[in-house]
Amino acid sequence: PASSPQFLRKTLLMPHVDSLVYDLEDSVTPLKKEEARRNLCSFLGDSDDSKFARQAGYIKSEVAVRINAVGTQWCEGDLREVLKIPELKTLVVPKVNSPPDLKFVVDAIQHHRPQSPAFGAPINILALIESALALSSLSAICKCSPEHLQGLIFAAEDFALDLSITRTPSLSEFLYARSAIVMEARAHKLDDVIDLVCTEYKGPDSSRRLEAECENGRRMGFTGKQCIHPSQVDIVQRTFAPSNDELSWAVRLLVAEPKAEKGGRGAWTLDGKMIDAPVIGRARRLVERAKACGIDLEALEETWKGQEPE
């Protein structure tokens, strides 16, 4: 929450994460909205903390800001001010119910984002899917702004409120919504599809619950998960990264694949299982994800360099 200078400073000591999301929306009370915006712009702008962090290389993660929803009294001011922050890479847009919500944000980017080398690449957008209306408009939302829309995030708590759903540990009540979000994100070639928050982060069962949710989300096709506390980061990163067993399988397959192709075999076997083009594609995706996670595959490639197709 950007309303807390203490929490802002704590982000300088955060473990490495893909994206640090500074919040101006639900974690900030209405009376603190303007103050939170000023705090954030100062912290990421010309404050001594920010200058020191940049010089020391502490802020290595993608800097993102969750603005207030389109249509609220704070949204336009949020966009006008945060788009002046050079380090800003991504806008997290809540309560995206239809394409006009995204179009409003894109128009603001074009109007308020300074055009200079100091501001780098175009701003990415992550759209929060939080309602029945949003779910019914997914395809149109995904098509709306291909130059800016990077991915979708499932916001389970607001979605449950909108549909009068009771959240359970199994998450079965969200199965349709989560499947639809993954499907539309993949169909429209969005890079990121981020799963729901695990709200339990304290207590004896919190780690087990988080790991189970991560495994479930990864199996469904999500590429990552929102964290609300630093204690969740290690489990999320470990679970969404390929395991050693998965990478050994992928490396063996990709070592054997050109040998099978050279022998004119479009389908072959490994460990008694058929290998064809879709399976090879999955192995390549695992290797790509491992590299994105900073995993060194050199030792595995050396170990399995003699692998032959069966």
Radius of gyration: 22 Å
Strand content: 5-15%
Which outline best applies? globular
Q: What is the spatial order of strands in the main beta sheet?
A: 1-2-3-4-5-6-7
Number of helices: 14
Structural class per helix/strand content? alpha/beta
The span between the termini is: 55 Å
Helix content class: 40-55%
- Return residue spans where pLDDT drops below 50 for at least 5 consecutive residues: none
What can be said about the biggest beta sheet?
A: 7 strands, parallel
Give average pLDDT, whole number. Answer: 91
H and E order: HEHHEHEHEHHEHHEHEHHEEHH
In quaternary terms, these chains amount to: single chain
* Count of individual beta strands: 9
SSE inventory with pairings:
Elements: H1 5-10, E1 19-23, H2 33-44, H3 48-56, E2 62-66, H4 75-82, E3 88-93, H5 99-112, E4 124-129, H6 132-136, H7 138-144, E5 149-154, H8 156-163, H9 175-187, E6 192-195, H10 206-220, E7 224-225, H11 233-240, H12 244-262, E8 268-270, E9 273-275, H13 277-292, H14 298-303
Parallel strand pairs: 1-2, 2-3, 3-4, 4-5, 5-6, 6-7
Antiparallel strand pairs: 8-9
Observed structural traits:
310 residues, alpha/beta, seven-stranded parallel β-sheet, two-stranded antiparallel sheet, 9 strands, 47% helix
Summary?
By secondary structure, the protein is an alpha/beta fold. Helices cover 47% and strands 13% of the residues.
Mind explaining what this structure looks like?
With 310 residues, this protein is α/β, with parallel strands linked by helices. Helix content is 47%, strand content 13%. It is built from 14 helices and 9 strands. The chain has a 7-stranded parallel β-sheet with strand order 1-2-3-4-5-6-7. It has a two-stranded antiparallel sheet with strand order 8-9. The chain is globular, with a radius of gyration of 22 Å.
